[in-house]
């Protein structure tokens, strides 16, 4: 596990450096594109196109235990519990890093992923809990989904 944490720490340092050098839009663009590639992979494998099922698979792949509740036609309550106070993307408790990783990695990656699978939807996220920000084991947010008007 130590080697995995070293790799993640390198990744986190790399993202912070990208933001310092290229600005916030550089990692956002990379995250959206990476999420989109994962979405294409899901499509090619013939994975489910049910939003709740797809999100559960997505977070299970990150070693989390997701709970997704549909609140209404446009909102989902997404909660992902991890075994430790460690976010696979944002790392451990470090308030200076939490928002940076949410805005530049977590949200854009998830948007890219969902946009590829569900091009008819636009998504937004409102974070309620974030491991690097509040030192708990849970990532918790409200996913807002709306139809794109054509």
Tell me briefly what this model is:
The chain is an alpha+beta fold. It has helices at 2-22, 25-44, 51-60, 95-117, 131-134; strands at 65-72, 75-81, 121-129, 138-147.
Overall form: globular
Q: Tally of extended strands?
A: 4
Q: CATH homologous superfamily name?
A: Trafficking protein particle complex subunit 3
Strand fraction band?
15-25%
Oligomer description: single chain
What do you see in this structure?
With 150 residues, the chain is of the alpha+beta class. It has one domain (2-147): 2-Layer Sandwich (Muramoyl-pentapeptide Carboxypeptidase, domain 2), CATH 3.30.1380.20. It has helices at 2-22, 25-44, 51-60, 95-117, 131-134; strands at 65-72, 75-81, 121-129, 138-147. It has a 4-stranded antiparallel beta sheet with strand order 1-2-4-3. Helix 2 (25-44) runs parallel beside helix 4. The mean pLDDT is 86.
What is the topology?
Blueprint: H1 2-22, H2 25-44, H3 51-60, E1 65-72, E2 75-81, H4 95-117, E3 121-129, H5 131-134, E4 138-147
Antiparallel strand pairs: 1-2, 2-4, 3-4
């Amino acid at each position: 596990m130590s080697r995995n944490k070293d790799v993640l720490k390198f990744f986190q340092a790399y993202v912070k450096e990208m933001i310092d050098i290229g600005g916030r839009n550089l990692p956002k663009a990379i995250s959206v594109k990476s999420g989109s590639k994962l979405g294409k992979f899901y499509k090619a494998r013939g994975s489910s196109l049910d939003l709740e099922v797809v999100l559960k698979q997505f977070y299970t792949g990150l070693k989390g235990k997701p709970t997704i509740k549909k609140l209404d036609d446009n909102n989902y309550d997404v909660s992902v519990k991890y075994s430790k106070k460690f976010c696979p993307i944002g790392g451990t408790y470090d308030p200076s890093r939490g928002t940076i990783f949410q805005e530049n990695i977590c949200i854009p990656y998830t948007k890219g992923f969902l946009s590829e699978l569900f091009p008819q939807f636009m998504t937004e996220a409102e974070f309620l809990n974030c491991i690097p920000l509040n030192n708990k084991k849970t990532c918790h947010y409200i996913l807002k989904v709306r139809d794109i008007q054509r």
